Amino acid sequence: MESYTEKILITGALGQIGTELTNRLVKIHGAENVIASGLDRWDKNLTSAGFYERMDVSNTQLVRQIVKDYEITTVYHLASLLSGTSEKQPLFAWKLNVEPLLNFCEMAREGMLKKIFWPSSIAVFGKGIPKENVGQDVVLNPTTVYGISKMAGEKWCEYYYDKFGVDIRSIRYPGLISWKTPAGGGTTDYAVEIFYEAVEQGKYTSFISENTAMPMLYMDDAINATLKLMDAPKENLTVRGSYNLGGLSFTPKELAEEIKKEMPDFEIDYQPDFRQAIADSWPASIDDSIAKKDWGLSYEFDITAMTKDMLKNLKIKLGK
Ligand code: AKB
Fold first, then answer.
1. Where would I find the NAD-dependent epimerase/dehydratase domain in this sequence (predicted)?
2. Active site residue 161
3. pLDDT value of residue 1
């Protein structure tokens, strides 16, 4: 394997995944080798990266310049508009979710980058696909703007690998649950909001109906999986679009029951909105056996351990 010092650029570094991934990368590679970037001002409480670039990831020339100036070898390109927000701004979502990815693929093709991570989503599956244990290679049929953009992105990743050997790696993330940085604009976000509202109000109104199961994952497991995939020997990888990642599968009602074990007075009711139709088009559970076989995907948190950890940390964070 070629050995070199990794210089890492993270886009979307102040987002839900970005903040936690950046801090883990700093622990592994040192702050001097990690450059965080995002649209907002640098919040030093959120990221321990050695450098921060305030940049619009759609600004092709600026991004190229930054990659050049810092001699970046590896990009974690996380900036993206999630499913709910994408439905409201379809053209912008397409532009943001696809074009900057192509810019990074081009830079890798030209030899400016060695490795790229790019997140896809369970949103690629869509209507008419079996609900349970959905396999890696089913026909993709997304019916949302977000799902369409992620499916196109996966195809571009495959194309750049097949044609030019670009080493781009990807995971189809399920809904991600975490307490450090709130999620924003997703369909699975109910599973984060519910914890904030449980701690702050003792009750929650879910925008997803009680019996709708979706695949979910605790952030610690998501970060571990991402780093494991990026560390895996190239020759072990058989998927160059994006790996299925199943995590947990539960409904709002089941999650509320877990919260009630810790907070018996917690109450939930249901007022589904436009995101229900998005959830209805997604799988309830995913088969991730190929990721387990190729690069040793594994999980630490089940729904009970996750619920306990979320409530413990949020109570501290929110001073409750
Ligand atoms: C969303 O709900 O849009 C995201 C996702 C599953 O990709 N969390």
1. 8-246
2. no
3. 62
Nearest protein Cα to ligand 1, atom 1: 186
In this structure, which residue's CA is closest to atom 8 in ligand 1?
175
Please enumerate in sequence order all residues whose Cβ is within 8 A of that of 112, keeping only pairs 6 or more positions apart, or say none. 64, 67, 68, 72
pTM above 0.70, yes or no: yes
pLDDT tens, position by position, 252-290: 999 999 999 999 999 999 999 999 999 999 999 999 999
Mutate-to-test residue for ligand 1 from 146, 190, 274, highest number of ligand atoms within 8 A of CB: 146
What percent of the chain is helix, strand and coil (3-state, nearest 5)?
45, 15, 40
Tokens representing 279? Answer: 């959830």
